[in-house]
Amino acid sequence: MRLSRSILFLTILAIGGILYIRSSIHNYDDRIFSEVKQVETGGWSRPRVAVVFGASVLGNRQLSPVLADRVERAIDLYRARKIDRILVSGDNRQANYNEPRAMQEYLLSHSIPGRDIIVDSSGRSTYETCLRARDVFGLKQAVLVSQDFHLPRALYIANELGVEAIGLAGDLRPAPQMDYQYLREWAAEFKAFYNIRIVPPDDVFVGERRPVR
Question: Is residue 211 part of a domain?
């Protein structure tokens, strides 16, 4: 009987913890927009910046469909004059793999001026991208561009770190393996909560400040 009560107590505690974490993460859901016209940045100080999170790049430096959708959404924001700069952030830990460079090349090929593209080659995770947006690039406000499944966590991290952020969903086409993505996101949300509320990562590279001008 005592063992059963202990198991029940631990189960209730675990469920309560899960619900609390998810409610904290999704506290910013009302800041996620699906259309460019819904994004309001008119009152922001300039330059207004969109942060595009990296995703997989194919062997020939072609953007994966998920990443292409994110970059296309940033282009839409730029052309609608909702933003002035596009910060592309991603993984560049291997010599033959460079997400931010691939995004930069894509933007340049779509007539985005090079002076309005900021490259962050050390955004190895959502946490690192958000922290570096604040500490390296000096952002106080940002439009985060990613898929709908990822934005709640990204907004939670950015806003909790002190960056006033809103999100634009880059879901221009059905993403592959969405069940897997949402399942993976559950685990990532727990990690985000742990990093924000308990212990921040100790391997984040910040480096020299390069405020966006």
Answer: no
